[in-house]
């Protein structure tokens, strides 16, 4: 998650598995955490809700009912940390489920091969 290049390749993999929304949600939460302006926090928190938490969203992430209820309550007074527990849940899902599959994927193996090849060429 630290490398923008690595995130982009992981995102491509998630897109192929129809689970790109998990990474997009995680990244949106990271951006919200950096926000300090109350008006911007309110706007970004609502956008994240509409894009990833609402049951009407085509990009809805899988959250348990307790976390979802906490988010619903937090919408009355949004904060830049209101999605922290949900973000951890999605991160854990990616870490335990998607990421191991990514490490065994042809996308990742091709990346490693190209890195090895470029190291040998220098």
Give a quick rundown of the structure.
This protein is mainly alpha-helical and 122 residues long. It is 74% helix and 0% strand.
State the CATH superfamily name: Regulator of G-protein Signalling 4, domain 2
Task: Just give the CATH class.
Answer: Mainly Alpha
- CA-atom Rg in angstroms: 17 Å
CATH architecture classification name:
Orthogonal Bundle
Beta content: under 5%
The span between the termini is 27 Å
Q: Quaternary state, please?
A: single chain
Task: Summarize the amount of helix as a percent range.
Answer: over 70%
The number of distinct structural domains comes to 1
Shape: elongated
Number of strands: 0
Query: At the third CATH level, what is the topology name?
Result: Regulator of G-protein Signalling 4, domain 2
H-E string:
HHHHHH
Structural category is: mainly alpha
